[in-house]
Amino acid sequence: EPEVTQTPSHQVTQMGQEVILRCVPISNHLYFYWYRQILGQKVEFLVSFYNNEISEKSEIFDDQFSVERPDGSNFTLKIRSTKLEDSAMYFCASRTTQGTEAFFGQGTRLTVV
Amino acid sequence: KNEVEQSPQNLTAQEGEFITINCSYSVGISALHWLQQHPGGGIVSLFMLSSGKKKHGRLIATINIQEKHSSLHITASHPRDSAVYICAVNYGGSQGNLIFGKGTKLSVKP
Questions:
Q1: For A65-94, how does the pLDDT look when each residue is reduced to its tens digit (9 = 90+)?
Q2: Within 13 Å of residue A15, how many CA atoms lie on the same side as its CB?
Q3: Chain B residues within 8 angstroms (CB to CB) of chain A
């Protein structure tokens, strides 16, 4: 069964360092998303991406964040200079069209120390 | 403000019990999702619905658009159903981003 894969599963980084979280969406999907879940809190939307550009983003997705689809298969989330409060589980999701079910990856747990 | 409220927050059941988890939302939506989050953190989509009722195995999801309310039912619950169940909605006009509830933590005891 096709699935969304995320790497790494866990990343520990020093405050101020740049991190790149990677996602491989399902191959025929067109819409891509990043969400985050701070420990003990609800999942929050970060950004949606369609047709090689950001289609929607939340207040959380500030200038420290960027997304890219560098090679037609990977979908990456970059955090330029990590802060302690960026520690969270980051989920990638994809779907074929807007009206269909979203498929989630297993998440990357980011710990900023 | 677009809100998604779930109840109960925590639920403990005995194996075999019928379980209901509720979700209400504040404004019109284009779709509602029920998701399951495993103890390891991964999220699995269970249902996406915009009207009526859907069934998959022992899971049933219903939605009442007029009342802005959805329920997730689990029949003949089993310890492997223990997880966090999350309701999330697509609000009309969004590009497909989801607004999530806080989740209901279900624990099914043998």
A1: 999 998 878 999 999 999 999 999 999 999
A2: 4
A3: 30-31, 33, 35, 40-45, 48, 86, 88, 90, 94-103
